[in-house]
Amino acid sequence: MAPPRLRRYGRRMHAIISGAGVAGLTLAGRLALDGWSVDVIERAAAPRSAGYLIDFFGPGFDAAERLGLLPALRERAHAYREVRTVDASGRVRSRMPVALVEQAAAGRYLTILRPQIVEALLAGLPDGVRMRWGTQIETVHDGARGSVLLSDGERLEGDVLVGADGVRSRVRRLLWGPDEQFVRPIGGLLAAAWIGEDRELAADLGGHVAMQVELDRQLLAAPVSETEVTGFAVLRGVEHQDARAAVVGMGVLGRRAVRSVREPYIDAVAQTVVEPWVRGRAVLVGDAAGAVSLLAGQGASLAIAGAERLAEELAFARHPSDVTAGLAAFEREWRPVVEREQARGRRNANAFAPHTRIELEAQRALWRAAAIPGVAALVARAAGGVTKAG
Ligand SMILES: Cc1cc2nc3c(=O)[nH]c(=O)nc-3n(C[C@H](O)[C@H](O)[C@H](O)COP(=O)(O)OP(=O)(O)OC[C@H]3O[C@@H](n4cnc5c(N)ncnc54)[C@H](O)[C@@H]3O)c2cc1C
Fold first, then answer.
1. pLDDT score at 316
2. Ligand 1 pocket check for 165: Cβ under 6 Å
3. Does any ligand 1 atom lie closer than 6 A to the CB of residue 271?
4. What's 9's DSSP letter?
5. Bridge partners of 84?
6. For 59-113, how does the pLDDT look when each residue is reduced to its tens digit (9 = 90+)?
7. Distance separating alpha carbons of residues 33 and 52, to the nearest angstrom
8. For residue 3, with 0-12 CB atoms within 10 Å meaning exposed, 13-18 middle and 19 or more buried, which class applies?
9. Would you say residue 276 has pLDDT above 60?
10. Which residue has the least CA distance to atom 27 on ligand 1?
11. In the prediction, which pLDDT does 247 show?
């Protein structure tokens, strides 16, 4: 993280953050640099190693640069040479050089696993952040003051309580209401993502991403090391328990991609819509406040940029009234950005898993044209990156 600003004198402010994900850790690090003490409460007992590939660009890239995080992210990023679309028999139908996309983004783009973003954030945490793994907020006693009881029996008091605990936020459930009010599935789509040990497939993929787009289906496989491959699928009209069979049914790539699935993530593709984001001195950030969904390809980027924005608004707070004003300013400024990306994500739903023959053929034609420099950038922009088709 960037060098700390000069600490100001006076009472030390304290933040309680639920969720050691992308938004929570960014916020924790940035607040600590401004002299806050921070408790981060994470339900998982330790950082997770499983995850999916993230196309990282846009506002979060700029924020990561300001926060001094870019070197740590670049160190962990994965470089691919081409995105190759394949058909059901595994035959390559089109190739898009990733370098064209990087050039179009002026190098401000990288591909990284979500757990590696978390790892980079954890590695850069300054003093003043206390990590509490394997616990969660049991009850909030006073939302206005951020007084909480943890499941391990400890009670904490903070000047601000932050729900950075993802699409199914615990803080939101406790203070705003049940998930059903806020989580909006999109287009009947199911997302499945996993990592698997498969030296042979990793070698066969070489330095390339393989992608297959069919009616109501999309599948991607990419090596993440010499021995590991990550898979990602978007499926329409498929139930959770049928996801594996649906991927296998796509053909050669599907059969190979699921061979060694480890810790699969399977969930409905969804956005969260919450209004307002602030209740007393409790606030939501990242996916808890406004998930854009993987269809927008910007969720992690917005989580970092949004957390930075929130930290900036709280940086100079020294009294409860400063906190209240800072939270209001955060929502006023950041909500329009999130809502714009959410609208883009909803528009992308059909492009992700084409629903008609015409949409499918249009998408395949676009990928065939993607070897042309200007078109590659357009395809990547429409897709929200190179590891998602759309
Ligand atoms: C398959 C898939 C592909 C994606 N691809 C992209 C992409 O290419 N580009 C992109 O920018 N974004 C992408 N995203 C979106 C991106 O991953 C999210 O938007 C981003 O991680 C949101 O960050 P967050 O910190 O708000 O939530 P998360 O990163 O989800 O972190 C939430 C944290 O809260 C913890 N938590 C949950 N419940 C509790 C609880 N009760 N108590 C304490 N802690 C709790 C979780 O364990 C987790 O650590 C993708 C998402 C998916 C699902």
1. 87
2. yes
3. no
4. S
5. 95, 210
6. 999 999 999 999 999 999 999 999 999 999 999 999 988 888 787 788 899 999 9
7. 29
8. exposed
9. yes
10. 166
11. 96
